[in-house]
Amino acid sequence: MSLTATAWTRLRxxxxxxxxxxxxxxxxxxxxxxxxxIGQGLHVPLVLWSVLTAVIVTQTSLGxxxxxxxxxxxxxxxxxxxxxxxxxxxxxxSDLALFSVLALAVAPLALLAAINSSFKxxxxxxxxxxxxxxxxxxxxxESAFFRVIEVALGAGVGLLxxxxxxxxxxxxxxxxxxxxxxxxxxQALQQLLAGCTGNLDPGAIRPIQEPxxxxxxxxxxxxxxxxxxxRSQLANTPDTGPLLRTLLRLRHDLVIIGRAVVDPLPQTLxxxxxxxLTRLGGTASGYLRDSAAALLRGATxxxxxxxxxxFADYAAEIAAIRREGLTRALPGxxxxxxxxxxxxxxxxxxxxxxxxxxVTEWAHPLAPRKGMD
Length: 373
Description:
Elements: H1 3-17, H2 19-41, H3 47-57, H4 62-89, H5 95-115, H6 122-136, H7 140-164, H8 170-193, H9 202-231, H10 241-260, H11 270-297, H12 305-323, H13 332-363
């Protein structure tokens, strides 16, 4: 293979791996150039602010862009109106008076931004409105008016580009994040259940659990963007809330299992419980991984038969042990851990059933939904 062909192959591979980043690069570039062209055509005084606004509001997903556009415009409008009124009503011909007006315009908006992040751009807008008149030779009202016009242009173009140019829906990002979280849950489940028959260092449990918490937190943020798209009629997709709540419950199941397996099962019960627990861990983890793959493909969920049988086998073995009276001789803490593990596995089984419902719904996003939860 020639050197040119090798370089082209590597470039195509890199482009395939960075497809989302390249799409975002195109959207931001189109937003900046289109805003500049429109601003020049409309003779906007400071087209720079329009271009900066367009770049800022063109986010990686449509839901993010929508939120950024609303927050940026609301913050700008509030900051411009308030600062314009303050600067117009209070004379400030001297430097001291100008600094006083600047402080009076910025301080309340800075407090408001600290309370509500949707207004985080308001203090900067106030500063621009107050100080722009010193070099733009305009009145405070004109400064505020043009600031709103500049931001409205940039925000409008940025949102339009996000909707029309290689649009990236938060729905797809939510599926990827949910699949990642399910993969982590599957891996952690096998690692934790292995502690039932071995020595699991208590310090090792937190590193097993931590990545799941981060993955669920990331999914939570993306689901908020996806639901924003759905509510604004920019996407026709299922409600992400039930899927997110199911993943949260799966995470809580693992937390309970982690507490139960800090110490291994009693030696007298390990020969009876180790085989069904190993099967349960393997089949349940496999079901979680297959569900993650189904989400990414938009396919129907995998069959749950093997997992159901493994849960039933473990429950049957526990019932047999209790009938034989083998639990009576156990120390109190060992008995408590055994019952805690049993409760956590029952909850896990139920939540796998719930997961099947939501994977089914996301496989057919346009089908009528029955409001299950």
